[in-house]
Queue: 2 jobs
Job 1
Amino acid sequence: MQKFQIISLSHKDAPIDVLGAFFVPLELRGEFYQIVKEKFQLEEFMYLATCNRIEFVVVGAKKINLEDLFSLGFFKAETEKIKTAKKCAKAFSGQKALQHFLRVACSLESMVVGEREILGQIKQAYAEALSFKMVNDYLKISTRKVIEIAKKAYVKTEISKHAVSVSSVAFKKLLQQKSLDSDTKMLVVGAGQTMYAFCRLAAKKGVKNVSVYNRTKENAIKLASVFSSKKAFPLTKLETHSEDFDVLVCCTASKRVVVDFGWLKKRTAHKAIAIDLAVPFDIDRQIKSLSNYSLIDVMAIEKTSQENIKKRQQSIQDCEVIITSALKELKVLFQEREVELAMKQIPIKVKALKAHAINTVFAKDLEGLDDSSKQVLDRVLNYMEKKYISEPMKMAKEILIDSEI
C-alpha cells in the first residue's frame, strides 16, 4: 500500500499562476505520461488536472522527489514557480494518499465543497490513464472504490444538497452584474465539461446569440447546439471574430493566453463582462486595465467557496465518517489482491502436479482402468484441483479479514 502516492498542488496553497505552470494540454498528455513513468520508474500513473488543482496519482517503489517532478523540462516552468510549487505541494503515501483521494472525490478538497464536477473529472482522468496503458491493480482498485464511495457520500449526506459548482458560482456572479435574455450576445471559448455546465444555465435564461470557438470544431458544434446556434468555429479563427459581444466566457486546456490584450482592446466598445474559468488563465491579465470590461475569474469564485464551507460543516463530518469506513475496505481489498498475486503460482503448480501424477507416477495403474472408471477419476481430480487452488486463497483472505477485526 505504501507504493500508492499522491502529489497534490491545489488552490488552497498554491497561486493560480503556479498551478497553471504545471498544466499539461490534452494533445501532449501521451508524451507526458511516458516521460513521467520512465523518469520515476512508475508502475502506474494518473494525472488529474482541474481549474483549481493538479494531482499526480502514482504507484511506484521509490518516493517521488518534488524538485525532480516540478523541474521536468516538459513543464518549462520558471525557477521561482518550481520553488513555489515545491513549497506548496503536499505529498501523501499509503493510507494517507487513499484518504486524500477519497476527500478529493467527495469534493471536500474542492474550491466549492459539494460540487459534483470533480467526480466526472476523476472518471475522465482514469479513462485517459487507461488509454495510455498506465493503469494496473492499484489504480484500478482504488479509483473504482473511490468513485463508488464518492457516489455514496453524495447520496447518503447533504454535501451536494443545493450544491454549487465553479460554473454555477460564475453564472450567479454574472447575473449579479447583468440580466440575460435572447438579445444577449455571448462569445464562448472552449467546450469542456465546465463550459457545458455554464452554457446550459445560460440557455435556460433564453440566451441564443452565441458564437463558440474550440480547438476541435466538432466539439464547438456540439456546444453551440445547446443554444440551437450554428456559429461554431475552430479556435484558430478567434482572431478574426468581428461581432460585438456582451459576455465573453473562456475555459480551455491551453497552457498559454488564448485571448490577448490587443484583441480585447479592439473587440468591444461598450461595457462587457469577461469570465475566465481556466487554469492557467485564458484571458490576458491586463484586461483589468480596460474600463469597458468587468472580470470574473476563479480567484473571485474562491471567496464564495469559503462561505459555502461554513454552511456544510455537518455534511463534511458525515462524509468523513464514510471515508474512514471506506479506508478500512480499501485496505482489505489491497491486501486481498497482494495475496492473490503472491499465490498466483499455485494454479500452475497444482496443474503440473496433476499432469505428473497422471502421465508418470500412476501412468501404468491408469492403463488398467476401463473408460467409465477413468471418467470418474478425471472428475475427482478436476474437483480436487479446483479446491487445492481456491481453498488456500480463501483461507488466506479470511486470515487477513480476521486480523483486521
Note: The chain has 16 helices and ten strands.
Job 2
Amino acid sequence: MNRKLIIAVLSISITFTSTAYVISSKELSKEAKYTSSSTMQESDINMVEVISVKSDGREVALVKDKSEIKKLLDMVKEKAIKESDVKEVEEVKLNSKITYEPKRVNYSEIKDLTHYVSNIVTDHDNNWSIKFDIKGYKEGDKWIPVSRGTISSSFGERWGRMHKGIDIAAPTGTPIYAVRKGKVIFSGWQDGYGKVIKIDIGEDTVIIYGHCSVLNVNKNDLVDAGEKIGEVGSTGKSTGPHLHFEVRKDNIPQNPEPYLKKY
C-alpha cells in the first residue's frame, strides 16, 4: 500500500515539473517577440518620407517637399552669379539635368539647404554638382556698337540743348552691331533719326540706332548681342556719317555709355 502511494507522488512530481518547463518556454517566446516588435516600431518612428534631388543622376540633397527644390536651385544660382566674373547678368541657364523621386530615410540624414549648397559648390576640382551657365558683361569688356569709330558728341547739354544720346563718327557703310539682345520694335524712317532701328531689351528699356544707311533687321525680329543690324550713314538730321546711339528707360533718355560693353 505504501509502495503504490510513493509511485503516485513521484508521477505527480514529474508531471508538474514538465508542465512548468513548457509554461516557461512559452513566456520566453512571447517576450522575444515583443522585444523584436518594439524595436521595429522605434525604427519606424525615425524614418520619414522625403524627396531625393539628383543632378545628372547623382543625389545632391534630401528635401521635405518640392518647394524646397526651387529654393535649393535659387540658392545655388545666386552663389554661381556671385562667384562668376560677370558684372551685368544677361542670362542664367541651368546646365544640369535635375530629377527627383520619393525616398524613405532616417530623419538624422536630413540636413538644411545651406549644408547641401555648400557641398554642391565645393565639389572636387571646382566641378559643381549643379551647374549654371552665366552670360553677361564682364569687367573691362568694351563693345562700341560699330566696328570702328570715335565718340564725336557725348550725352548731355550740347549747343544749348539736351543731346539725348551719343554720336559715334564712322565711315558710311561701317557695320552696326546690337549691344544687347532684344526685340526689334521699329526699323524704318523717322524724322530726325532718318533710317533708325529701335530694340526693346526688356525692363522698359529701348536702344535706338539712328542715321543708318542700311537696315538689316525688321520689326519683330529677335536679335542677339553682337549681331549686325545695320550700317552707318548720314540719313535724317545729320551733318556727316555717324551713328546716333540712344538709350531710353520708360521713354526717358539715359546716359548710354554703360551700355557700350560686350560679353
Note: Confidence is low (pLDDT under 50) at residues 1-38.
